[in-house]
Amino acid sequence: MKINDKKLLLHACCGPCSTTALERLSEDYCVTVFYYNPNIAPHGEYNLRRDEAKRFSEQAYGGKVLFVEGRYEPDVFLKAVKGFEKEPEGGFRCEICFRLRLEETARYAKDHGFSLFCTTLTVSPYKNALLINKTGEDLAVQYNGLTYLPSDFKKRNGFRRSIELSQSYNIYRQNYCGCIFSLSPSSICKGNA
Q1: Residue 2 lies inside a defined structural domain of this protein
Q2: Which CATH number is 31's domain given?
């Protein structure tokens, strides 16, 4: 699907994942990056990822790609995943997290006149694109009038391309998904969080 005159709201989790998604989408859509990630902790990490995503979109695309920051609501995330803190990476906690972020993206899209929404989450080889796309498609039905643009940005060497673009633009590449539960105790002790 290529729709030149349609506005697409692209949920972005970080700068590195934004790279491939924007490269593939910006020619065919009027893209606005939406940074909504209440799962990211600590707050300094959230700020760093936000700043890198914004810097990349501005440096690579100038005024062609807009950037909007949603609210930072770590309490909303913690409440949503309560009881699932010990789930392994890729487990039900992640499913809740995907839905939380995509639902806010759909809500924002609906409220601000976007017809399409999508996410950068599928760049990561650690994220389940089928689950993410199903969640997005379900939300598009719930938010009548929206279309979710399914993707698997890791395909066609998308993840490798994100590494190349991150190196070219000197983008910070994090070593955990973002939530405090995905950090290893050694990362916390070493100050990597």
Answers
A1: no
A2: 3.40.50.620
Q: What is the pTM of this model?
A: 0.92
**Residue 185: what pLDDT?**
53
Range of the domain at 165: 7-189
| CB 126 within 8 Å of CB 91 | no
Which two tokens mark 44? 């300094």
In angstroms, rounded to a whole number, what is the distance separating the alpha carbons of residues 177 and 117? Answer: 21
Q: Which two three-digit tokens encode residue 176?
A: 């955990």
Cα 121 to Cα 159: distance, rounded to the nearest angstrom: 11
From the list 48, 28, 46, 26, the residue with the least C-alpha distance to 37 is 46
1 belongs to a structural domain = no
Exposure b/e, 99-113, CB count within 10 A at least 16 = b: bbbbbbbbbbbbeee
Beta bridge partners of 35: 69
At 154-173, the pLDDT tens digits run 999 999 999 999 999 999 99
